[in-house]
Amino acid sequence: MQVTTHLPVIDLSSPTDSTSNDLLHAAREFGFLYVRFKALPIDAEDVDSLFDLSRTFFAAPVAEKEKYKIGPEDRGWSAPYDEALDEALENEPRLQYRRVQGSSTTAASSVNFVLAKRLPRFVPTQKPRIMPFAARTSRCSAKGLLPGLIDAAMANSKQIPFEAGGKHFFSSRHAQANGATGSVLRLLYYPSQSLPTDKTSVEPIRCGAHTDFGSVTLLFQRPGQPGLEVISPKGDWLPVMVSPPGTENDAIPPIVVNIGDMLQFWTKGVLRSTKHRVVIPPTKLVNGTSTTSDDAGDGKSKHTSGTPDRYSVAYFCHPAADTLLVGVPSRLIEEQKGKEHQNEAEIVTAGEHLRRKLDKAYGWAKKT
Ligand SMILES: O=C(O)CCC(=O)C(=O)O
Ligand SMILES: [Fe+2]
């Protein structure tokens, strides 16, 4: 069976008004889209080096990684099952749903970097490789990508008044000059898991269903390492191919870009922060028996009798921490019937929203 994708692939080589409208449409319909790499000022070699670095880091002994254990400031290493993302399961007793393999928790080991600031000591020699990548990713996600293009699209249709920020409403709130943000570059590693013959006893979820906390996420994936799924409006889980049709020969797979909670709040739900998860990919992909899938394997990922390893890199883009997540003063937004309308008591800043989500995911509030 051919795995097809329902998400649009948008080429940003030379964006026009119609590109920003396409992007706005995708953000409204799906909350997810692909952006072709060749359009972005990021080198394929930088992406490859970052994945090399990721492999080196995660291969280090646990005792070494423990030295950089993640804390409430959201920087550092998380062990598999440290993070619980599926809030639908939050009523389960804490100890049953944290640190236990299960659908709410993340089976990935991950490490978060502070951009342009303190890099963990385990990568001092990698600084020249990471920093340009992080800086470029940060620039293109905040300016060239969604916030900037959404500004352009909003300006095309229903202009945000000049005094309220005009056509720079979103991008200016992501400018570094406007203060600290929760933006973070995260390397993720889902180790290979062996599959018992009785498949019904296997929990197929590698990362529990969740929405992303920030404004925009950029996700880099590797050929032969599928598993990401997004939920459809009807509630079905749909696979997100690594290399959708037409991109198979690109230097690296297109970047998956998705809307996070903050853009959903800002737009009263006009833009969708869509639930997604990572699953153990179907057996036909794991065993490489499929010849029709884009993800039939490149020989790079480890195919054991179980699941392949999966490495991914996510850049979570956030606006300045003190940004109020209130509806954008645009007719497009104000005409909304308030589907995702927040009442005054619920209005939070970007920093507060991130704090609440992290405290839940890691149980920080209980620990401190
Ligand atoms: O590893 C992935 O592909 C997705 C991870 C993810 O959704 C997240 O960390 O928010
Ligand atoms: Fe996510």
From TrEMBL:
GO biological process: small molecule biosynthetic process
Single GO MF descriptor: oxidoreductase activity
Keyword vocabulary terms for this entry: Iron, Metal-binding, Oxidoreductase
Pfam family, one: 2OG-FeII_Oxy
Keyword hit for Iron: yes
Keyword Metal-binding: yes
Residue numbers spanned by region Disordered: 286-306
Protein family: Belongs to the iron/ascorbate-dependent oxidoreductase family.
Protein name as catalogued: Fe2OG dioxygenase domain-containing protein
Organism: Gomphillus americanus
